[in-house]
Amino acid sequence: MIRPEATPMRHLDPKERTKGFAEVAVGYTPDEAVREAERCLQCKRPSCVEGCPAGNDIPGFIARIREGDFRGAIRVLKETTVLPAVCGRVCPHEVQCQGHCVLAKKFDPVQIGALERFVADWEYENGVELPEVGSPTGFRVAVVGSGPAGIGCAAFLRRLGHDVVMFEALQEAGGVLLYGIPEFRLPHRIVRTEIRNLRELGVEIHTNVVVGRSLALEDLFAEGFHAVFLGTGAEKPQFMGIPGEELAGVYSANELLMRVNLFNAHLFPEYDTPLRVGRVGGVVGGGNTAIDAARVALRLGAERVMILYRRTEAEMPAFSAEVHEAREEGVEFHFLVNPVRFIGEGGRVVAAECVRMRLGEPDSSGRRRPIPIEGSNVTIPLDTVVMAIGTRPDPLITQTEEGFRLTRWGTIETDGDGYTGVEGVFAGGDVVTGPATVVAAMAAGRRAAHAIDRYFRERQGGRPRR
Ligand SMILES: Cc1cc2nc3c(=O)[nH]c(=O)nc-3n(C[C@H](O)[C@H](O)[C@H](O)COP(=O)(O)OP(=O)(O)OC[C@H]3O[C@@H](n4cnc5c(N)ncnc54)[C@H](O)[C@@H]3O)c2cc1C
Description:
- By secondary structure, the chain is of the alpha/beta class.
- It has three domains: 14-126, Alpha-helical ferredoxin (Fumarate Reductase Iron-sulfur Protein, Chain B, domain 2, Orthogonal Bundle); 140-235 and 392-459, FAD/NAD(P)-binding domain; 239-389, FAD/NAD(P)-binding domain, CATH 3.50.50.
- The chain has 18 helices and 16 strands.
- It has a five-stranded parallel beta sheet with strand order 3-2-1-4-16. Strands 6-14-7-8-9 form a five-stranded parallel beta sheet. Strands 10, 11, 12 and 13 form a four-stranded antiparallel beta sheet that branches.
- Helix 5 (70-78) packs across helix 8 (112-126) and helix 6 (84-90) runs antiparallel to helix 8 (112-126).
- The longest helix is centred in the C-terminal third of the chain and has 22 residues, at 438-459.
- The site of flavin-adenine dinucleotide (FAD) has 40 residues, from helix 9, helix 14, helix 16, helix 17 and helix 18.
- Flavin-adenine dinucleotide (FAD) is lined by residues 90-91, 144-150, 167-170, 175-176, 180-181, 210-212, 231-233, 235, 257, 288-289, 292, 394, 396-397, 429-431, 435-439, 441.
């Protein structure tokens, strides 16, 4: 008999957790993990695998957990992924693997994400086994960007025996995993462990190098690299272009999150640019970034934080688990409102004038189009505004280098396996898809690693030209 209910995972108390940045979800114990693994039906044609962008052998790793063979379970996962501790925490399991679990038709789906996280954490505590590095091929690849796409590409290139040097613009590697996703969802120690593992795998990492500025692609080829992978993400914030966006106290979500995650600006009021959110914060947007920014603002001491979203909850792109946790913590949701201007006093924002919206017919995204209701403007007093209405790739590399084909959103066009059409240059992750997910970026990096390997064999005859 299958137990209909999933084994619950403990979470910190909502009132307590907003006092700091401790991880909200606590994780399974070994007994809980085995108990949950026993719910898996071990389907012959597992639809959960189809729902996983990395194509992980889900029944395979769960079968090992059921037998108590946690080492075996992590080995199965690592055949296809390099970031199980990260994906176990932040993937949208409810729509990916778990959304496809056959149990979900009648009961709770198997908690695949929690099980993935469990075995990855178990490995951290019991000794990380690095994958085998392939015999040296003599080929060198420059990986630009150290987010999940860069990490995935670098790790799989090492498994294939190629030399890899990673270049990161910021002072620390990890991409959005480190500077975007807050610690209460993804502790920095996890990301730092993954970066250390990458170094131990033989990847050389250079931080504070902005490719396109400190180094051109041409310089990389001149320095002896045989291919370049661009995993530079899509983190250039978008603004609405309305009056008042230039006021002090109006941040992009990226800036707010980066200042907290990377610079700890909230801890140092003596900084020239300290971070103070004040009593009331408003966050404009409805994606994960908006929810993260709102939850961070609460933790920085705001008494009230409101999400201002122009559609309704049904159209929100944020993961439902995140919305649920934000609500538990006291984040307020105001739907069908859109700012038309921010009002300032002495150069600082003090209010947002918003117009009420109604939903019309679906637009090109398939979501119902929000339409302003004339004469419905309301003024909402607030001390801080965070704009989380979307991001695009930074055009630095594509504007300074020739030959890239771009979409109208500024993302790089590739052939599906990451080839850009510029000789020797591949790309993957958010810079190709636009803002997406960690697992999609990691999987794109892995696909590109194999495409680079094929490129070396087919176009360069399998032997590096010196
Ligand atoms: C706040 C927030 C929360 C999110 N939450 C989730 C979540 O819960 N689950 C999920 O699956 N996804 C989530 N995402 C999306 C996910 O983080 C991204 O899809 C993913 O990180 C993309 O990976 P990437 O490697 O393509 O790019 P990034 O992670 O953006 O990494 C790109 C790296 O390239 C570097 N770089 C850029 N330009 C240059 C240059 N010219 N030279 C050198 N280096 C450069 C950047 O500094 C950065 O470190 C979230 C995103 C944000 C912003």
